[in-house]
Amino acid sequence: MDSRNKKTQTPAGVYDFLPDECGMGTYLKQNILSEAESWNYERIETPSIEYLDVYLTTNAVASIRDIFKFTDHSGRLLALRPDITTSVARAVAVKMKKGPFPLRLCYQGEVFSFNAQAGGFTQRTQTGVELIGGSGSFYDAEVIALAISSLLKAGVTNFQIEIGQVDFFKGLMLEAGLSNEQAEEVRLLVEQKNMLGIELLLEKLPVSQPLRKVISELPYLFGDADVLNSALSLCSHPKCREAVANLREIYDYLKAYSFEKYLSFDLGMVKSLNYYTGVIFRGICPGVGEPVMNGGRYDGLIEEFGDGLCATGFAVEITKLLKAYSFEKCGGADKKAVVFCNAEGYRRAVELCAELRAQGKKVSLNLAKDSEEAEFSGQNALEIYNVCGAGAQRLK
Predict the structure, then answer these.
(1) How far apart are CA 157 and CA 160, in angstroms?
(2) pLDDT digits (tens, 9 = 90+) for 137-164
């Protein structure tokens, strides 16, 4: 790319968001945060820049190679945050360790990372919640219920929440006697639902034939709540059975919200074994190639910064959610108005703009020679007014 192209293009993985997209994004963020606050979640803000050491943890959600790193004037290594949860965990461990618990926190902000699939550096907007100091199915269900309620509040109705449990997989790996490295190889193939790859790998590992068959079934263990019965029939390890019991309890709690139609289960969804410690979930919208939301329990993260605290939460990927529905659906266009005036009508036009803004409408004021020019220039607005002298005429 020559220098001229560099002046007119953005780097791979980052984009310009034009007014309509910004309007949609603002609408989504405001509604998701508003819903979280109505559940008594309080806003927290953490810096976009952290010391790199914050992310050099055993339970890190981001790989060190994917973090955007640089140095300050003293040579100390800094990082643009690849996620917000880790920053919140640091803040809680250092500045909010006395509670009161459970803490309910919500946030929105930008995150940054390298992504080979995206062609390089990526910048994303996340809005999310963290529930810290609450353990068990009761609080797992609250966070999933809030995730569903937040999407509904934002005007998204066509979605599915897929729920898994990493302890089910961990129990199978313990029963098989596999090392952490071997378990990670299996996890990657199960997460990809690579049936042939799983079969070929298990043939090389010291796994009994019956257990090999169970592990090979993992990619097929998805569907409605009935799949939990199938999962239970396949496992004997206590960790697996506790994982299924956790999912059943969560489902029972969520039935109180009448959210069953948004739920499905996937025991073959196995995210990071170091980071997640229990239930995991993701939000899927038709037509969007990646999850618009990710969440789950991460009881080991906060102890990296101080005393251990159990925690669960989710983050909505606003940029991905924008693909799920149109601008008109989010209601951003129905409050726009344009007022045109000539020199004689300026004072009355200013008064009219103030009246319309007091009604919650977005109003712009422009000069126009006559009503025909005003109607043509304001054709994208839902309301058009033309003011000549002391009189105001609504054209649309």
Answers:
(1) 9
(2) 999 999 999 999 999 999 999 999 999 9
Instruction: Please list, in sequence order, all residues whose beta carbon lies within 8 angstroms of the beta carbon of residue 343, skipping any fewer than 6 positions away.
Output: none
300: number of Cβ within 10 Å: 18
pLDDT at 332: 47
The 10 Å CB-count burial string (b at 16+, else e) for 158-171 is ebebbbbbbbbbbb
Which residue, 385, 299, 283, is CA-closest to 337? 385
Return the closest-CA partner of residue 82 out of 33, 115, 106, 43: 115
**118 pLDDT exceeds 80?**
no
Query: Residue 372 — very low, low, confident or very high, per pLDDT cuts 50/70/90?
Result: low
Nearby residues of 31 by Cβ (< 8 Å), 6 or more positions away = 150, 153, 154, 155
Query: Rounded to an integer, what distance in angstroms lies between the CA atom of residue 208 and that of residue 211?
Result: 5
pTM, two decimals, is 0.88
Crossing angle (nearest 10°) for helices 227-234 and 238-255? 170
Distance CA 32, CA 126 (A): 11
Distances (CA, A) of 242 to 167, 190, 231, 249: 8, 21, 12, 11
pLDDT of residue 328 exceeding 60, the answer is no
Ranges of beta strands (E only) in 151-276 are 160-165, 222-223, 263-266
Q: Do 27 and 332 meet the contact criterion of CB atoms below 8 Å apart?
A: yes
- CB of 262 within 8 A of CB of 152? no
Buried b (16+ CB within 10 A) or exposed e, 232-257: bebbebebbbebbebbbbbbebbeee
Nearest to 102, CA basis, from 62, 133, 147 = 133
What backbone torsions phi and psi does residue 344 show, to the nearest 5 degrees? -70, -25
pLDDT in tens, 171-197: 999 999 999 999 999 999 999 989 999
Nearest one of 167, 156, 160, 107 to 131, comparing CA atoms: 107
Residue 325 — very low, low, confident or very high, per pLDDT cuts 50/70/90?
A: low
Secondary structure of residue 393 in the 3-state scheme: strand
Secondary structure (3-state) at 307: coil
140 in Cβ contact with 263 (< 8 Å): no
More confident: 224 or 5: 224
Which residue is it, tokens 């799983």? Answer: 198
DSSP letter at 101 equals S
